[in-house]
Specification:
The termini are far apart. The longest helix has about 30 residues. Helices cover about 45% and strands about 20% of the residues. It is of the alpha/beta class. Helix 1 packs antiparallel against helix 2, helix 7 packs across helix 8 and helix 8 crosses helix 9. Strands 15-16-18-19-20-21-22-23 form an 8-stranded mixed β-barrel, surrounded by 4 helices. The protein has a 5-stranded antiparallel sheet with strand order 4-3-7-6-5. A 5-stranded mixed sheet has the order 9-10-8-13-14, sandwiched between helices. It folds into 3 domains: about 170 residues, GAF domain (Beta-Lactamase, 2-Layer Sandwich); about 150 residues, Reverse transcriptase/Diguanylate cyclase domain (Alpha-Beta Plaits), CATH 3.30.70.270; about 240 residues, Alpha-Beta Barrel (TIM Barrel). The protein is elongated, with a radius of gyration of 38 Å. Bound molecules: ligand LFPHGCPZ. The site of ligand LFPHGCPZ has 25 residues, from strand 16, helix 12 and strand 20. Ligand LFPHGCPZ binds next to strand 16, helix 12 and strand 20.
Length: about 650
């Protein structure tokens, strides 16, 4: 049966026959009882309890409650929100509310004037707002409400201890409040929702206890091993490497013994936070036991693992206060790599553990790889890094200069300053080795500053001695442009040496344009405003879009030497060098051909209209004095 507005109505029917004197039925008395409320209770309860028994996920159970309620009372749009530990509302279900609305209120705080639900959760009692358009409780949320919804009645869902854990709300398309059926529906649903939410909380708690370390909140051994195995499978499918870092704190026992266990616990929490801050989304951090932590880094090779280990050790070594004492934490780190050191997590962990013991024996506060070869490489890199640091600090690098020659008259266009490093034991180290190392270990800024100072000093010296060098070109690295002070410092430097902006060329690479650092573009423009010329180095090898050419204040293009090397073969290389020249010509940029080693190459480039060339054919990069001699010889020869 249905009521006057079409809602389902359940009735119990009792028929009593009326008998005549002979005992024959003549009439019957029918008794119809409205049992809708009891029946609703039964149907709703059975369905929800059935879902709970079948372990249906919380969100699906809440969706079921809303849909059942809406089926019984179609004039209602139901919504269920959870209140999280931070007092914020989290959307669980609202099948007939727009997704955009559910998303907008997800994360909203509860409070004294936070719509119907936030206020109901805050007050711990039902809140009826029969006119959303005017009620002050909705002042901050009215703009979010979907068109057509005019009233909202929300009731808090409480757990068995009386704490508010969620809200159950009815939205209406008229200015109204609940009727008797709605009151009944909510009454039944609140118990069911509380049951489902409490069960979910209990499950989350059990999961937390089973899979997370209670002290630090990090994944424990079981979870870490399971997640690491999954990461290994993904790396296997992608053909990528993975690194396992086993970290053990040095002298932790002494800290525990001398400062007490609460201090030890505080230190472990601090260490966990620091490890997480370094690793972030790059990998997993877990605590095995005591002072043993593990970091798993998917898509990570030996070199990257070295960098992370260095960062972890440096971060841990920053002093922190524990129990009123300033402590510096040293740790020993063992590293194993998938697939070379093991195919599964058990093996990798065991080998990282063995490597960690080697690190401890070899001096604390250090790391070791499981494999000897990797160890060797990492140690070499560390040694090279520390020598380079010394060289930069003590300014024992030098600059060589390579001339760039104008092809129409053989005069000098500029000289390119190139850094050189002679290692006390290893001899000359190539810039292609030490420049990336300086970039990785944060030395490049200092190195570039020195290059700029030395190049300007040398140019001023040449000028004073009447040696005509029109300009000096220096190479800067992408991170140099993160320094907002670079233009100002350069301005001061140029003035100090009596030079102007146009005496300096700064070579940048196409790869730099992929660096999205906010100051890069501004720094480039500020340099151009000083009159410094910007030259796009290795042009044609990197960034595929050319659109940057007219957005950036570039005055020169340097054709990459690989094109010049291929010129003799004709065909594509010839077409490419021609295309680069045409691009330069149409944008009115000076184009310099790099790596010219043969007369034939020079002739071809000259024919194509290249105005300037650089390469071994003219001269290798030379110390300043040797360059002066080279210039003298050319003058004599002509
Ligand atoms: N950020 C900085 N980068 C620098 C600095 N000094 C050098 N570098 C960069 O290192 C890379 C290697 O440089 P280098 O070994 O000095 O090689 C340069 C020339 O020697 C070489 N070259 C020049 N002519 C020829 C030639 O005819 N044949 C041939 N095979 N090589 C030649 O090219 C290098 C100059 O290249 P480029 O800078 O692209 O003009 C190199 O990328 C340097 O940029 C520094 O102080 N800071």
């Amino acid at each position: 049966m249905r009521d006057l507005i079409g809602r389902p109505l359940w009735c119990s029917v009792v028929a009593n026959p009326i008998l005549d004197a002979r005992g024959e039925p003549t009439h019957s008395v029918m008794l119809l009882t409205d049992i809708t409320h009891t029946k609703l209770h039964e149907v709703l309860q059975n369905k929800v309890l059935d879902a709970l028994v079948r372990e249906v996920p919380l969100v699906a159970v809440m969706d079921l409650v809303c849909r059942e309620v809406e089926r019984i009372a179609p004039e209602v749009k139901a919504s269920i929100l959870r209140v999280d530990v931070n007092g914020r509302l989290r959307t669980l279900a609202g099948p007939n509310l727009p997704d955009s609305y559910s998303q907008a209120i997800d994360g909203a705080p509860i409070g004294p004037r936070t719509g119907s639900c936030g206020t109901a959760a805050y007050r711990g009692e039902p809140v009826l707002v029969s006119d959303i358009a005017t009620d002050p409780l909705w002042d901050d949320y009215r703009h979010l409400v979907p068109a057509g919804l005019m009233a909202c009645w929300s009731s808090p869902i409480k757990n068995s201890e009386g704490r508010v854990i969620g809200t159950f709300a009815f939205y209406y398309e008229q200015n109204r409040g609940p009727d008797e059926l709605h009151l009944r529906l909510v009454d039944v649903s609140l118990h069911l929702c509380a049951l489902a939410l409490e069960r979910d909380e209990a499950r989350a708690h059990i999961r937390q206890l089973a899979f997370y370390d209670a002290l630090t909140g990090l994944p424990n051994r079981s979870l870490l091993m399971a997640e690491a195995e999954q990461a290994i499978s993904r790396c296997d499918a992608e053909g990528a490497e993975l690194a396992v870092l086993f970290i053990d704190l040095d002298r932790f026992k002494q800290i525990n013994d001398s400062l007490g266990h609460p201090a030890g616990d505080e230190l472990l929490r601090l260490v966990a936070a620091r490890l997480q801050a370094v690793v972030r989304e790059q990998g997993l951090v877990g605590r095995l036991s005591g002072d043993e932590f593990v970091v798993v880094l998917p898509n990570c090779d030996g070199l990257q693992a070295t960098q992370v280990a260095e960062r972890l050790l440096a971060r841990l070594a920053v002093a922190h206060r524990v129990a009123g004492v300033s402590l510096i934490t040293l740790a020993s780190v063992g590293i194993s790599l998938y697939p070379s050191n093991g195919q599964d997590m058990e093996t990798l962990l065991h080998r990282a553990d063995m490597a960690m013991y080697q690190a401890k024996n070899g001096g604390r506060g250090s790391f070791r790889f499981f494999s000897e070869e990797m160890n060797q490489r990492a140690q070499e890199r560390l040694a090279l890094e520390s020598s380079l640091r010394e060289a930069v600090r003590h300014q024992t690098l030098s600059l060589h200069y390579q001339p760039q020659v104008r092809l129409h008259d053989g005069s000098i266009h500029a000289v390119e300053a190139l850094a050189r490093w002679r290692h006390p034991q290893m001899g000359a180290v190539a810039p292609s080795r030490f420049i990336p190392l300086a970039e990785e270990c944060g030395l490049i800024g200092e190195l570039s500053q020195w290059v700029l100072r030395e190049a300007c000093r040398q140019l001023a010296d040449w000028r004073q001695r009447g040696i005509e060098i029109p300009a000096v070109a220096v190479n800067l690295s992408p991170s140099d442009f993160h320094d907002q002070d670079l233009p100002h410092n350069l301005d001061v430097l140029l003035r100090r040496h009596g030079l102007s902006g146009s005496d300096l060329v700064v070579e940048i690479t196409e790869g730099m344009l992929l660096d999205n650092h906010p100051t890069t573009l501004a720094t480039l423009h500020a340099l151009a405003e000083l009159g410094v010329r910007l030259s796009m180095d290795d042009f044609g090898t990197g960034y595929s879009s050319l659109s940057y050419l007219h957005r950036l204040p570039i005055s020169e293009l340097k054709l990459d030497r690989s094109f010049v090397a291929d010129l003799a073969g004709g065909g594509t290389a010839l077409a490419l060098t021609d295309a680069v020249m045409n691009i330069g010509r149409s944008l009115e940029l000076t184009v310099i051909a790099e790596g010219v080693e043969e007369t034939r190459q020079l002739e071809m480039l000259h024919q194509q209209g290249y105005p300037v060339a650089q390469g071994y054919l003219f001269s290798r990069p030379l110390p300043a004095a040797a360059l002066e001699e080279w210039m003298l010889r050319r003058v004599m020869a002509s």
